[in-house]
Amino acid sequence: VQLVESGGGLVQPGGSLRLSCAASGFAFSRNTMNWYRQVLGKERELVANITASGDSSYYEDSVKGRFTISRDNSENTVYLQMNDLRPEDTAVYLCNVRRYRGEGKNLYGVDFWGQGTQVRVSS
Question: Which of 10, 95, 99, 101 sees the fewest Cβ atoms within 10 Å?
Answer without folding.
Answer: 101
